[in-house]
Amino acid sequence: MATIKARPFDFTFAPENAALIVIDMQRDFIEPGGFGATLGNDVTRLQAIVPATARLIAGFRKAGLPVIHTRECHAPDLSDCPPAKRTRGNPSLRIGDPGTMGRILIAGEAGADIIQALYPLPGETVIDKPGKGAFYATPLGEMLKEKGVRQLVFAGVTTEVCVQTTMREANDRGYECLLATDATESYFPEFKKAAIDMMTAQGAIVGWAATVDQIVEAIDD
Ligand code: C5J
């Protein structure tokens, strides 16, 4: 057990029961020409968290703790992409349309893959998810139960969309959730701040927040 001076109050970290979930660090969100960029976003904001995210992943790997990666993507026939999702966004480049890195957000296409700098090691779990939350329509919940995980550390993009949705899903399922503030980012700085404020408010109503250094030091304790 280690104590992390987190927001909004100390987080009692039990690494032996913890896993890291790295949300959607995919080329489609982070590299020029991907889904995020086609929606008019500045992807350099997301690129800036790559070194801190790599340090967090390295800390978990060094301690032999589970590292789970997610990818937001859909089946090639789009059977898992509701029209209500597909018909929003950029009308000239929708999910499933051909982009510069293959079909946008489609499993198996180059753009849907995880960026090279954070690439999963052989044996690490990669969850493909059709929704914003990583529990919806995936085996994640069962897998965490099997591993006896009770605490989840979160990193990835974007803070207020897939990270926040997954943290809320996890919180409702009884996990203690800790967000690594410098290993998550949004295309909109004000949304990142608001998401962290909302989740940590009211006595950690969704969870806690701390920096990568704080979390890695606590793993090493
Ligand atoms: C979005 C995500 N923003 N991974 N996906 O569409 O946050």
From TrEMBL:
<feature type="domain" description="Isochorismatase-like">
    <location>
        <begin position="18"/>
        <end position="206"/>
    </location>
</feature>
<dbReference type="Pfam" id="PF00857">
    <property type="entry name" value="Isochorismatase"/>
</dbReference>
<dbReference type="InterPro" id="IPR050272">
    <property type="entry name" value="Isochorismatase-like_hydrls"/>
</dbReference>
<keyword id="KW-0378">Hydrolase</keyword>
<protein>
    <submittedName>
        <fullName>Cysteine hydrolase</fullName>
    </submittedName>
</protein>
<dbReference type="InterPro" id="IPR000868">
    <property type="entry name" value="Isochorismatase-like_dom"/>
</dbReference>
<dbReference type="InterPro" id="IPR036380">
    <property type="entry name" value="Isochorismatase-like_sf"/>
</dbReference>
<dbReference type="GO" id="GO:0016787">
    <property type="term" value="F:hydrolase activity"/>
</dbReference>
